[in-house]
Amino acid sequence: TEDVLAARRGDQARNWLWTEVGDALLAALNSHTDIRALSRDLEAKVARGELTPSMAAQQMVRMFLERSITA
Fold first, then answer.
1. Distance CA 57, CA 63 (A)
2. Confidence (pTM)
3. Residue 28's closest CA among 52, 63, 56?
4. Tens digits of per-residue pLDDT, 3-46?
């Protein structure tokens, strides 16, 4: 029915919104030289089992936010 289609379109629009937000944040992260360098180090630590993916992500986001706020 039309209500079901409208609800589905709303769900798709919300999913698209968050995909766009994620893409924009990843692009912003990748635009910072310091963050790119940190990400290589963190990826290596995650691969070696020295850090969990969650801990590495938190470190990267923290650095990004600190750099963005002071910029």
1. 10
2. 0.73
3. 63
4. 999 999 999 999 999 999 999 999 999 999 999 999 999 999 99
